[in-house]
Amino acid sequence: MEQIKKHYPGCYRVSLGETFGQIKKVGREWHAEIRASDSGDLLRFAGIWGTRKAAVEEVISTNSWRAKDSLVEQVCDITVNDQGSIILFTPKSDACKEWIEDNVQLEGWQWLGGGFGVDHSYADSLIDGLQAEGFEVQ
User: How far apart are the first and last CA of the chain?
Assistant: First the structure.
């Protein structure tokens, strides 16, 4: 994970020549990446929020004309779909994928495309764990 050089609550407005990257979790807090528009290089992390949803909503509400395209699809970290005999979890954000790799024991056969299936009896506990970590589950 990239080192945070600067992060200040509320200092997440972009200037000319800057754009938003992703909302990233560092430790237990969420930060917005500010990147150079031309090169895509990381300039700084900005803002400090307790949840991904709060970060995305605040950045979009303050900078809607610059943030909408790059952040609006990041509100959801993982989708959950009842497929009858299994519940299908499809991670959307890199932070959520990393958390699943570190915290959920999965066998290769559970992966179906970009998602993984679990028995109904495990789904609620997994959803609770994801939400406790600040991930937005849909």
Answer: 26
Structure tokens given for 52:
């991904």
In a domain, 137, yes or no: no
In the chain, how many domains are there?
2
pLDDT digit string, tens, across residues 50-74: 877 777 777 666 654 445 444 544 5
- Whether 45 is in a domain gets the answer yes
Cβ distance 131 to 50 under 8 Å?
A: no
**Predicted structure pTM score:** 0.54
Range of the domain at 93: 78-132
Q: Give the pLDDT confidence score for residue 72 in this predicted structure.
A: 43
Place of tokens 């997440």: 12
